[in-house]
Design a protein that fits this description.
The complex is a heterodimer. Chain A has four helices and no strands. The termini of chain A are close together. By secondary structure, chain B is α/β, with parallel strands linked by helices. The chains are: A mainly alpha, B alpha/beta. At the A-B interface, helix 2 of A face helix 3 and helix 4 of B.
Chain lengths: 81, 253
């Protein structure tokens, strides 16, 4: 389940932020790349909510500062891949 | 060409905060007439449910009522989350909830300012934020916030209230820039003197003077404002965003 979750979240990041193939998604942090700016962040949040059928609260949106944090957050919500 | 279909908002879900009285209620009624599924919100659960039932019966569309106080910033997000879960989407928001308290400069107390800012400014921001997050997931939407002519021009005895409404207009202008790329339009209406409960306490002379200073020589009706809000919510206004539209009959303050 964990691998599935990671793979799915990675795919969400790639599609929502329109990332090129060579980006190291797993180590990506907010504002590391131009695509993940504040507007990109909102797109990403919306994509995660859609993909995993969750609604993030404002604190989670603000705290989601990296791929790893996002992954931990979803795990903490017992989200399935 | 104007959309002349009988139900141009059919299939849309529109939330009207402060929807149990005055402009909010008139707007909820017009939106329901246009076929929208309307969610009316207010602080009083009994009143909210009663208004929702009346509007639903009168218009033959689903109208639901949800009670919460927009001044409770942390309550707004969960309320919208529940609305989105129930309806599956939110296409429109009329952030109408607001309070009016007058005081001359020398009489303004800190708690009056805090109340006005909590409901009119923070409440509007919380509502726009919560609705926008749902709209983003569905690819867009339309938001209308309620500013005021006094926020644009100022008014004697309304320094704090006018400041709060000026801030609301700025919410529309700023949010429009931020949310436009996500397909969400944000506009404000700035009513003049409208015949609602909010002016019931004013002296007759003041109302007479205001009417004399209004080009159309009458008070506004809540429906005058509601029609403009309906327009801004609809696709008729598809290329309108970041605007503060006066609905004041030509009132000069």
């Amino acid at each position: 389940m964990t691998t599935e979750l990671t793979d799915k979240l990675r795919q969400v990041f790639v599609e929502a932020l329109e990332l090129p193939a060579d980006v190291d998604v797993d180590n990506l942090k907010y504002r590391d790349i131009e695509q993940w700016d504040s507007l990109g962040h909102m797109t990403l949040v919306a994509a995660i909510e859609d993909a995993f059928d969750v609604q993030l609260d404002t604190e989670q949106v603000i705290d989601m500062s990296s791929f790893k944090v996002a992954l931990d957050m979803l795990r903490g919500m017992n989200v399935d891949g | 060409m104007a959309d002349t279909t009988p139900a141009p908002l059919a299939g849309r879900v529109v939330v009207v905060t402060g929807g149990t009285r005055g402009i909010g209620r008139a707007t909820a009624g017009l939106l329901a007439q246009a076929g929208a599924s309307v969610v009316v919100t207010g602080r009083d659960d009994v009143r909210v449910k009663a208004v929702a039932a009346e509007l639903s019966e009168a218009n033959g569309v689903p109208v639901s009522g949800v009670a919460f106080d927009v001044a409770d910033f942390d309550a707004v997000g969960p309320a919208f989350k529940a609305i989105a879960a129930q309806h599956g989407r939110i296409d429109g928001l009329v952030a109408n909830a607001g309070i009016l308290e007058d005081a001359l400069i020398g009489m303004i107390k800190a708690d009056l300012v805090e109340r006005l800012l909590a409901t009119n400014v923070a409440g509007t921001i919380a509502t726009v934020q919560a609705a926008a997050r749902v709209m983003m997931r569905k690819g867009g939407g339309s938001i209308v916030v309620l500013a005021s002519i006094v926020g644009e021009h100022g008014n004697l005895g309304q320094t704090a209230y006018a400041a709060s409404k000026a801030a609301v207009a700025t919410v529309a202008r700023s949010a429009a820039k931020e949310l436009g790329p996500r397909g969400i339009r944000v506009n404000a209406v700035a009513p003049g003197m409208i015949d609602t409960d909010m002016i019931a306490h004013l002296p007759e002379k003041m109302i007479t003077d205001r009417v004399a200073n209004t080009a159309l020589r009458r008070l506004g009706d809540p429906l005058d404002v509601a029609r403009v809000i309906r327009f801004l919510i609809s696709d008729e206004a598809a290329f309108v965003t970041g605007q503060v539209l006066g609905v004041d009959g030509g009132l000069v303050l």
